[in-house]
């Protein structure tokens, strides 16, 4: 193979290589032994100050020469603007489609989340609906209680004010439709939760007022019950007393005889007869009921030589006597002190004084008067 001294394309001197160091063109040709091949070997061009010349000394147009060569390898070609535009458009479309799909997926997730939250809030309202209605109805019934049944009637007004500030909420008032938008579902859910929170606070105030009213009712009921029991007891006591007084209109008596001072008296048989006194001058008889009637009889010597009149005057001076009567050998006197009535009858002779004293509270005057009538006249000397 022959090697050119100068590049046939650009005229650059060969430095001993097979390809031009400037343009890369091959610098080899078939050996000179083949005349036919030698005819195809280009004649080197020479450089001059005026440019490149051919073998005849004419300038060579290198740009034209370059056009005569085949185009560069495919990897050296550029991509056309149309192709770039199409690719860019496809990229933009892909980005837009991806964004729209992403937005739709996000929007559906948000809507699903709000639908679940809305349904949860409405379920909470539904769960509390029955209890709230029951508490409201109980409080409303209490608010209609008659004032006479309360110890403090002003509590009814407080309960009425609490009830009037709100009404129970119902789950049917909140609709979470699957076809509703995210914003609508959010509004419904938030409103349900807000109303439920408000209802809980309201019911706490209603229940507090209801408990106060119920406590006042219970207190008044206890009072009324106690008053009723007291009245029933008083009525029963009065009835028993009346019955007893009726039964005792004719008092049964038994005779008591005192041997020392020779006297006797008829004392009620149903009274408690105490033991005779130590000196034997008399004894005491007491009612076993709550009328507190006491009968005391005694005898004594007439050491001062008193008379019925002088003895009566002594009692008139010592007590505020409301009634007195003087007989041939006896007298009677009655007075009242500190709520206690005293009836006294004495038999006075020259040697002995015999007496009966009956005391009873003014509250038992009816029963006491009957005892006086049945007992006092029976005192007599033997």
Automatic annotation (TrEMBL):
Residue ranges, annotated region (Disordered)? 218-250
What are the entry keywords? Membrane, Transmembrane, Transmembrane helix
Looking at the UniProt entry, the stretches that span the membrane are 84-106
Q: Where is the composition biased (Basic and acidic residues)?
A: 220-243
- Under which name does UniProt file this protein? Zinc ribbon domain-containing protein
Q: Which organism is it from?
A: Bifidobacterium ruminantium
């Amino acid at each position: 193979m022959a090697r050119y001294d100068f590049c046939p394309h650009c005229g650059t001197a060969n430095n001993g290589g097979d390809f031009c160091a400037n343009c890369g063109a091959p610098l080899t040709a078939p050996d000179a032994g083949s005349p036919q091949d030698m005819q195809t070997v280009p004649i080197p061009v020479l450089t001059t100050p005026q440019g490149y010349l051919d073998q005849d000394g004419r300038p060579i147009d290198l740009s034209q020469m370059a056009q005569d060569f085949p185009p560069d390898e495919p990897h050296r070609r550029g991509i056309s603007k149309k192709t770039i535009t199409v690719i860019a458009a496809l990229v933009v479309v892909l980005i837009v489609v991806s964004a729209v799909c992403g937005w739709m997926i996000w929007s559906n997730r948000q809507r699903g989340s709000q639908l679940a939250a809305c349904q949860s809030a409405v379920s909470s309202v539904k769960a509390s609906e029955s209890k709230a209605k029951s508490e409201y109805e109980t409080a409303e019934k209490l608010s209609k209680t008659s004032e006479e049944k309360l110890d403090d009637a002003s509590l009814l007004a407080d309960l009425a004010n609490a009830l009037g500030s709100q009404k129970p909420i119902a789950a049917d008032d909140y609709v979470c439709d699957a076809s509703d938008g995210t914003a609508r579902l959010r509004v419904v859910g938030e409103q349900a939760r807000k109303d439920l929170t408000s209802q809980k606070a309201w019911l706490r105030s209603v229940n507090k007022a209801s408990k106060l009213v119920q406590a006042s009712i219970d207190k008044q009921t206890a009072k009324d019950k106690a008053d009723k029991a007291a009245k029933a007891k008083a009525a029963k006591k009065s009835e028993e007393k009346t019955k007893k007084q009726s039964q005792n209109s004719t008092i049964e008596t038994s005779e008591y005889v005192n041997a020392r001072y020779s006297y006797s008296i008829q004392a009620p048989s149903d009274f408690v007869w105490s033991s005779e006194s130590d000196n034997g001058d008399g004894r005491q008889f007491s009612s076993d009921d709550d009328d507190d009637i006491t009968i005391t009889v005694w005898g004594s010597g007439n050491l001062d030589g008193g008379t019925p009149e002088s003895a009566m005057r002594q009692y008139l001076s010592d007590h505020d006597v409301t009634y007195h009567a003087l007989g041939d050998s006896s007298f009677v006197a009655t007075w009242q002190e500190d709520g206690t009535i005293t009836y006294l009858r004495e038999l006075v002779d020259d040697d002995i004084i015999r007496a009966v004293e009956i005391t009873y509270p003014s509250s038992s005057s009816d029963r006491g008067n009957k005892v006086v009538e049945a007992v006092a006249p029976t005192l007599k000397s033997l």
